[in-house]
Design a protein that fits this description.
The complex is a heterodimer.
Chain A lengths: L5 H9 L4 H24 L2 H18 L9 H24 L3 H14 L7 H11 L3 H12 L4 H8 L3 H25 L1
Chain B lengths: L1 H12 L1 H5 L12 H22 L10 H20 L12 H23 L14 H43 L2 H11 L10 H11 L2 H8 L1
Classes of the chains: A mainly alpha, B mainly alpha.
Chain lengths: 186, 220
């Protein structure tokens, strides 16, 4: 299926008659990318499902104000990332838990999830990711899984490319150590 | 090309991680992405509707939320007061209820089993004495008969005793000599000095108690 260009979506959205059609095209184009981005951050499918809907509601409300200063998908990614960070912060406040405890909860959720079909190594990789600080995990996911460029990640997160590179390399080293140590114990 | 260079940088630093196949370990329910657009459209519609509809149209009385706070506090206080006796502060020794249950079982079910084993003889049947009316009336009649018979025998015994005493007295009198009895009576008889009335007293008596006709007829 041919992907519709962002420009075409935006043009249709600006016309009242074709607005719903444009929004449907936008959802079809980005729903999976946004879902997986969210899912890798919040781990649980139901949480991810709620957040994805919230993300697209915000897109619907604010797309008319969108100016093409940035790319459409980086704009949507930014909304999704902010929603995830807000969600995780609320979770911390609600449970009055520290970051480590939230990571532990997410790890438990990962093990208990019925929507996880990775092998033992994949499970360990996800557990290694959950040991990282939130921002390092976010950067690693965007770089490793979403294969975004540093420029794009910089645009989404509002962080300099240099800082992103440093964070990513630190994250990679930590994961490598975790995986190798863990491999010994396997 | 730029992405490849960036990737090569980290792959050199983490060869083990680079060697792992890059795959998504997560999965989603069947047909999830087919239905997701409808869900999102629904959420967008309800969100829009909420924004358009604005207020619900419901209103509350003046000062409602100020007074409702007090009412809620009062209600919760009352609820707490009602619930207080539930936790009276008493406690029991450790495992008390487990031991209690075991004790009761031993004294009821266990005892019943022991009795059943020990006494295989049939239990004698208990019959109440006064259960039948016939027995009641028969018992009353018997009581009356026995009482009457006892009274009769008692009376008969008293009469016989009197007769025997009289006979014994008569026998004693019979054994005593007649002359001795006469002497005894004469010796113990009280001396009665009878006063002989004078002629004048007799005359007065006759005149007071008898008429002249009676006297005339008596003389004639």
């Amino acid at each position: 299926m041919k992907q519709v260009e962002d420009e075409e979506i935006l043009e249709k959205f600006n016309i009242e008659r074709t607005r719903n059609e444009a929004f449907n095209l936008l959802i079809s184009k980005y729903q999976e990318k946004i879902y997986w981005h969210v899912r890798r951050l919040v781990i649980d499918h139901d949480d991810a499902d709620d957040l994805v809907q919230d993300v697209f509601i915000k897109v619907w409300k604010n797309l008319a104000k969108f100016r093409s200063d940035s790319k459409l998908y980086t704009w949507i990614y930014r909304i999704a990332t902010n929603e995830c960070i807000t969600f995780l912060n609320k979770k911390k406040q609600r449970n009055q838990t520290s970051l480590d405890e939230v990571s532990s909860e997410l790890s438990e959720s990962l093990v208990a999830s019925s929507y996880f079909n990775g092998d033992k190594i994949q499970m360990k990789l996800q557990q290694a990711l959950l040991t990282l600080p939130e921002k390092q995990r976010l950067i690693f996911n965007m770089k490793y899984y979403d294969e975004l460029k540093y420029d794009e990640i910089s645009e989404i997160l509002g962080t300099s490319v240099g800082a992103l590179k440093a964070s990513f390399h630190i994250a990679v080293k930590k994961i490598e150590v975790f995986m190798l140590n863990d491999e010994i114990s396997l | 090309m730029k992405t490849d260079i960036e990737n090569n940088e980290w792959k050199a630093e983490a060869p083990y991680l680079a060697s792992l196949p890059k795959q998504n370990p997560f999965c989603v329910p069947e047909q999830y992405f087919a239905t997701l657009p409808h869900c999102i459209q629904g959420s967008v519609y309800t969100g829009t509707l909420k924004a358009v509809a604005g207020e619900t149209g419901f209103i509350v009385p003046d000062q409602y939320f100020i007074t409702s706070k007090d009412q809620i506090i009062a209600a919760t206080t009352e609820q707490n007061r009602v619930e207080l006796p539930l936790s009276s502060g008493f406690s029991t020794p450790d495992l008390y209820f487990e031991k209690l249950q075991a004790g009761i079982m031993a004294r009821t079910v266990g005892l019943a089993i022991e009795e059943k084993v020990v006494s295989s003889k049939p239990v004698p049947k208990l019959v109440r004495l006064w259960q039948s009316d016939l027995i009641k009336y028969a018992s009353a009649a018997c009581f009356i008969l026995v009482t009457a018979f006892g009274l009769y025998l008692n009376q008969q015994s008293f009469t016989n005793e009197t007769t025997v005493t009289d006979l014994a007295n008569e026998q004693m009198l019979y054994d005593i000599d007649e002359q001795d009895i006469i002497e005894h009576i004469e010796r113990n008889a009280p001396v009665v000095q009878q006063k002989t009335p004078t002629h004048q007293e007799l005359e007065t008596y006759i005149l007071n108690n008898y008429s002249q006709n009676d006297l005339s007829s008596a003389i004639n």
